Fold each of these.
Amino acid sequence: MTAATSTLEVIPLTAHIGAEMRGLDMSQPLSDADIAAINQAFLDHSVIVFRGQKLSQEDLLRVTSYFGPIGHMRRPPKYFPPGFDKILPNIMLISNIRENGEPIGALPDGEMMFHHDMIHSANPDAATMLYSVEIPSHGGDTLFASGYAAWDTLDPALRAKVDGKRAKHFYNYGSVQKGDGKGTEAFGESSHPFVRTHDQSGRKALYVNRLMTVGIEGMPDEEAAPILEAIFDHMEKPEFVYAHKWQVGDVLLWDNRCSSHARTDFPSTERRLMLRTTVECDKPPF
């Protein structure tokens, strides 16, 4: 089913998550009506896709601001790629491009398990926006899983074990997961409700993930481990997932409060460059 406001189309991509929005040139300021429409689509679909955009860094920050306060980048890049002699504050580079043997951006190589951005912090970001500048010939797809659908269909016995509990999270990409010294150094840990109630939609979503969730508060690890494994497997079922194949000029926004995401592997010899911004959350997920 396709909805429209003037020339704006909202086209669902799967039954549970993701919608492509057509009819907008994001390099131009948007009308209040269009901003309201894309915010509603964001709440309805958790992930929204805008194809064929050509944005300056200023444009990217402006578009991000349509969804709430712009988040502060907590890991600024040390280097800048050719053509980017200045990186504006609150924009992060995600890239495998190397200068003098060092990546110019964060999270440069390989696949990543499903995760929620910044879940290891006390107040995780509400949303992440990613803009593709250079992409490899294949791979590097981003997979998005609906926490809403996973909770709505979770076995009642598992529901009873986790509802009302808090999960423990640890930033471990490149340390616990990979163990090869090539990832990002681990930092930060937190605990949050296992089941998160979205502060805008009011819906419940599973708020744990395979990459960063390491335990359940008040539960021995040997008891928690099989529960977590069963829930991770359930959350990652193909029917709950939208797989995005990137094109240059894609802009994606995803809701970290009710969706998790993963990245597939891609050739390390091919350049990948993304610009990343975030939207702050009004309140921690207590």
Amino acid sequence: MIRVLASLLLLACCGGASAVYDSWYELKLGGVRAGWAHGTEHIQGDLRTVSSTESMRIARGPSEVSVTATTVWVDHLDGTPVSMHWTQDMGGVPVETTWTFQPGEVVIEVAQGGRVSTATQPTPRIGWLTPAASLEVLRRKASAGADEVQFHTLMPDLGLTPVKQTMRRIGQGVLESPRGVIEVSTWSVSIEGLPVELETWFSPDFHPVKTIMNAPFGVLESTLTDRATARGASGGPAPELFTSLFVRPTGEAESLATARRVFLRLTTQDGSPLELPASGAQTIAGERDTGVLLLVEREASMIPAAGGVAPACAESSAMINASDAQVESFARSAIAGLPADASPGTRAEALRRAVRAWITDKGLETAFASASETVRNRVGDCSEHGVLLAAALRAIGIPSRVASGLVWMDGVDAFGWHMWTQAFIDGQWIDLDATLPTPFSAGHVLVATSTLKDGDGQRQLMSMLGLLGNLDIEVVRVDR
């Protein structure tokens, strides 16, 4: 969960290019100072380079995690893309992704800790604009009197599928900032695939002055300032985004972790539609406009996977690097004592137990480490367990993906946001949680799955974001 949440928080803070500039922003979440952002644009000859860096710190209970992302776009002055370089540091070894745009294709290179993978994808069929070109279109059309502007663009978080961005003018006025009083126009920003909207205040030359994102878990605010203020000491604790997102249910919830099956009714607090997947142990027992009735069974995988399994569930990626020599060695060692004819289910369970035992430093200090990193440092929380198990499964030929949602925690009597693994066995998705002493529990709520494919894995998890701080859960029935 922390990687997806951090990605959205950083995405909301990104300023676009409008002219050659060098601007600093202060970031706040829920009124608490959370970090800083820095944007620059440089032009040399026919090439334009636009860079943005966002750095945030988030408290996860007693632990604090720092998350930093830097994106560098290079295009020609006519908007023709040249490259995009994206670095994400989630508290471990940074992951660097480079897109190089060539005639008819995009070369994707992903590097982490000296390990590099390269792939190609066809050029997106939908016409799209670089960040600099999109701001130019907005400036030109708004200056001509348009109150709504639409275009497609690419975002590294969401991969090489263009997303539609809709800008609507909602006001004019002035805004006070450390740089003085600035005339501004206010625009709402809707991004396809993101469950929250932004509002941005632009200066007359369409330089972002302020951006806010109103999300159920808090208001994220980015405000133009000077470097000293942006990079200054916080003077207080980081915004807390772990225990504050726990969901305390109504109904009898005692010992859900040991139940045979559980019926749960989920509704959104803001009345928005709720769509949840039916996969693995989870089926949809009933639906209503703003909620669903779920049935979760501890030892059942009841739904055949329609259409089989996506190729990405068997391939290596930067996060799920099944081809890493140490991941392969770990996986082979974990099943070495099994009979040669052991079933895929038996081998998968052996890997689950091995991952649980292998990660010995079980803390919250790492936001989201890759399988390659985790197999070496043996550190992590639920996301590291989930990713390492997914990589080990792929290493022995079992397709896998990560699953995200909530899990019941007996110690605090609440549901907390969580990640685990699904293995594709005998035509069905089987849930496996390497953080537990048993393979799985009926106290899980599945919200989204992802292959964590390079350049596109984040898109599959975005459905979670509108639910953080926006869910009510009723325990309807528990069978033991």
Amino acid sequence: MRHIKLSGREATVVRSIGFTEAMMGAEIQDCTHMDVDDVTDTLNSLMSAGYVESIPFCEEVQIAEMPVTAFEINPAYVGELKQALYRR
């Protein structure tokens, strides 16, 4: 089992997305109360690590596209991410 270590911002974004269904970028920003730049940077880092996927798929999301893009947790990392959030 991999041990994932999340920063505070990453943990906040993962919690707001949840583990059941995709969430729009604008909803994530509303839930986290973070700036658009911070949410976009955090989502891009989570996507580059493979923990989060965008719908439609893209390698990196731009600030203008983030609010209208859906994001979901990669099913391959659900167990490890839940453990990482539990350890926080």
